[in-house]
Amino acid sequence: IICDGTSNTQANAIVNSIQKTVSKSIKEKAWHIEGTDNAEWTLMDYVHVVVHVFQKHIREFYDIAGLWGAATIVKIAPTY
């Protein structure tokens, strides 16, 4: 899963929301999380699913979605 926020605050809020939602709905915790110090690129490893939460400009710079050119892209509308 690849998503982005527009600031450190928003990226951290996304990470926190994912943690709470996953913990509440399926009682799982991430095996490993890194990148929360600066919140430019946070990686959340749930073993079978990996979540990348970027700040928008960092996501554009690294373009990891472009590396997965054959993958199916599913856009999910914000729910706020």
Map the helices and strands:
Layout: E1 2-5, H1 8-26, E2 32-34, E3 41-45, E4 50-55, H2 56-62, H3 64-67
Parallel strand pairs: 1-4
Antiparallel strand pairs: 2-3, 3-4
If strands are numbered along the chain, what order do they take across the biggest sheet?
1-4-3-2
Strand content range: 15-25%
Q: How helical, in percent, are the residues?
A: 25-40%
The number of helical elements comes to: 3
For the terminal residues, how far apart are their CA atoms? 19 Å
Structural class by SSE content: alpha+beta
Strand-and-helix sequence, N→C?
A: EHEEEHH
Low-pLDDT residue spans = none
Number of strands: 4
Largest sheet: 4 strands, mixed
Question: Taking Cα atoms only, what radius of gyration do you get, to the nearest Å?
Answer: 13 Å
Shape: globular
The residue-averaged pLDDT reads: 92
Q: Would you kindly provide a written description of the structure presented here, covering whatever features stand out?
A:
By secondary structure, the chain is α+β, with helices and mostly antiparallel strands. Helices cover 38% and strands 22% of the residues. It has a 4-stranded mixed sheet with strand order 1-4-3-2. It starts with a strand and ends in a 13-residue tail after the last helix. The model has no long low-confidence stretch (mean pLDDT 92).
